[in-house]
Write a structure and sequence with these properties.
- The chain is of the alpha+beta class and 81 residues long.
- It has one domain.
- The termini are far apart.
Amino acid sequence: MKRKRKIIAVLVVVALLSGAWLVANPLGRFGWCCFGYATYSAWPRPISDFQVRADGSTRKVTKTHQLSFQEAEWLLGGGNK
């Protein structure tokens, strides 16, 4: 009986943490972000970043501290990539 209660308690905690994660990081939107860390659609992105245009279109890029001319052109709407 004690084992069953422990399993139920663990499942309740996991469900509550999952719900809190989805509230803080909603699906289809950016969630918790800070320098070097971004969350998009409830998935953390430790290796890749997103570039977002004003029209809402996004693309995944590698994390760097550089912004090339081609990337800036795409962000401003001139690129077709």
